[in-house]
Amino acid sequence: MITLYDIPSRLAQKAWSPNVWKTRYCLNFKQLPYRTEWVEYPDIELKSKELGVRRPSLRRPNGAQAYTLPVIRDSNTGTSVADSFKIAEYLDRTYPNPRKMIFPHNTAGIQAPFARSFAANMRPIMNLIIPPECDMLNPRSAEWFSRTRVEIFGLAKLEDMLPKSAADYKREWAKVQDGLSKSAKWFAKNERGGPFIMGPEPCWADFVVGGYLMWMRCVWGEESEHWRDVLSWDDGRWAKFVVGLKKYENVV
Ligand SMILES: N[C@@H](CCC(=O)N[C@@H](CS)C(=O)NCC(=O)O)C(=O)O
């Protein structure tokens, strides 16, 4: 059995974290049995060490190192793996179902830079999404998240990340749209019609995009203007994409 370690939110489905969603999509796609164990932010380092994760998986913008989720523990092999990309590689290597490869045709080498370029396109979302993300967490995680972000970004308070005026906010939101549109052009090159980057079956690149979209949907809510915007952008490409990913959204 595989255990997936994830950070809980106060939402009904609990799962919200973009990086952990990448892994959950992988597990659901490969139809591997697993269960989720919830870990609050301040407990991630201790839990990781307990599981035998040897080193931190993140270097922060201020240079500090941090342990992160997702982590998986696979009791079938006695292995713990941190970092969503490394977990995806581990899952393909350990459970190589030829019809369910996260990196079909050995594409890890080209999907890794895809994910980095996508994240770069989406960089403008950070200042908009991090402050409200905090409201979705349980109190211990919220306190810890807010305090560490204030430190990392050298702020007086978390809300200082937000644009100062409505006009500034609009400009920043337009940059998020622009970032997704750049990525939409990559998807449009697939002549098999999608909804995914390689056609009807998803792969790592799709789970990366899906993780971001899930994050936005969780933080702002399905009824929000933000989410309605996203679904309308790029001629409804993301609306179709989200429908396509739905069957991999089980939280167990
Ligand atoms: N490169 C890592 C990044 C993981 C990551 O940043 N996870 C966040 C949750 S979305 C985390 O655990 N952050 C802990 C922290 O910031 O202290 C991956 O893809 O797994």
Automatic annotation (TrEMBL):
InterPro entries: Glutathione-S-Trfase_C_sf, Glutathione_S-Trfase_N, GST_UstS-like_C, Thioredoxin-like_sf. It holds the Pfam family GST_N_2. Residues 7-99 form the GST N-terminal domain. Gene3D superfamilies: 1.20.1050.10, Glutaredoxin. This is GST N-terminal domain-containing protein. It comes from Agrocybe pediades. The lineage of its organism: Eukaryota, Fungi, Dikarya, Basidiomycota, Agaricomycotina.
